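pasting input
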Amino acid sequence: MSFASQVLREDERAIYELRSLYSKYGYSHYRVSKFEEYDLYAKNRSFLVSENLLTFTDTNGKLMALKPDVTLSIIKNVVANESSSYKLYYDEHVYRTTVGGDGFREIRQTGLESIGSIDVFAESEVLMLAMKSLESISKEFLLDISHMRFLEGFLENIGVGAENMGEFLSLIGSKNLSGLRALCGTLGIDKDKCESLCVLTAMYLPIDKALYEIKKFVKGEKMQSAFSELEQIYDTMSCYGSTDRLYVDFSIVNDMNYYDGIIFKGFINRIPDSILSGGRYDRLMEKFGKRVGAIGFAVYLDKLERFAADENSFDVDVMLVYDEDVAPRDIIAAARELGKDGSVRVLSAPDESLRCRKLVRLGKDGILTLETND
Amino acid sequence: MINIALPKGRLGEKAYGIFEEAGFECPSIREESRKLIFENAEVGVRYFWVKPSDVVVYVERGAADIGIAGKDIILEYKPDIYELLDLGMGKCRMAVAAKKDFCDRRDRTLRVATKFPNIARDYYNKQSREIDIIKLNGSIELAPILELSDVIVDIVETGKTLYENDLEPKQDIVDISARLVANKVSHKFKNAEINDICKKLEKVLAQKNK
């Protein structure tokens, strides 16, 4: 794609790279329509990143919504039985509000879903693709992974009931140790157990070191199965040769009503927010009455817009200004010649507001360079 | 280089003192000048003063890697950031206050004047109480005196201003103190540096509280 790098914005370039990456690993392109029946979202509101929907009434009186999310539309349509297996990717526009922002925004979102019987290999493949997605955007990336069942098991072990789960998760999500200590205090949770929770919450380590650290907290069947899943993922990811940018961070939390296995988020240095987000969402499938495994992630490309370096600080490479008495034939020839090195804008009078690398005047006697700004 | 947002005012200056003691000094900050940013490249820190309520904005959007923000601001704006440390300074509480002779009647909508509409709304939502929020930007104590509101939700330190104006705190909502907050992505990419700052601050604070 030699033309692409010159013309495409960073986010546009990323889209095509991601699409070619996913199709290389056998994922097929899945298109969905822009609109979806409102009911689909009304039932699964808290799964959405923002709960606000852009709705309208269709010609037949049905309440419709502009798609705020692609995953729900996909899983609604998949046929789930024992032999089914889907590996899909999408590239769509979604419509949602941003936190604290006013009004709806159109966001380009790319992502993939792997649905069917999901084993450790399938999980690792998705993680690997998440890492490769990030890598194609920048070499300075990190993929953070957490395990909802591990955390849930731990919290249950120290005596946290379902009614307090949400409060604990939100404190863990902001690594708020003083808040956790205070909450444990009011609930009468043992000090040592609380300190273990603080260790888990504060921890931020590459996966190999993290596994070593958290092993001592494993207790009970729930945690054990989650822990060995993480171990196997680590082994498989090692085979892909990509574990050095894979970190364990339990502050990556998500709604337990939808996610029950691994969840992960991807970050790029200098972009102050996560740009990739995903996880294992079997519980969501279950809500649709589909008893199969599912894992996927989305890449939020709108965040890339400001990321590109400002190397392209010129509007055009050459501004070609021709004199009145120059024949069109000569203008065409000159523009073609200058166009060999870059973009040319042809004007009859110079445009002061245009930032050009080179200002060239075409007169009867030929080309004269008036200005170079390099 | 770690960018640190400090809240303008007494609390920020006190917080800077802790940073200084922890070895992240930046002498130029103490000089009288119109400069906005103060840097000490040797220890790898850059400070800037911002309006207290803006600290979380700078941090959430990554313009600052870490910052010092009051718990009141964090509760009000609910930014998506890490809250790493309770500095235990700037202690006060968020409380409901009203005129001394105020009689709370549940059969009518409560008028609440406050600088913190989200905190007030959360508090009364939990009580399933209908309220009318009057957002003010200062001199909140005036509102019940002039019958603009029934109660106020505001920060109470000693309660002196309240008592002098014939008001008194009625219920406490939450304890407030200054927190060290961090941008989530900075915390990952500058993990070692931020952890180092965090640990050293903790040490200084522990010594002070002895």
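fyi The interface with chain B takes residues 99-100, 140, 142, 144, 174-179, 204, 247, 249, 251, 267, 269-274 of chain A (CB under 8 Å).
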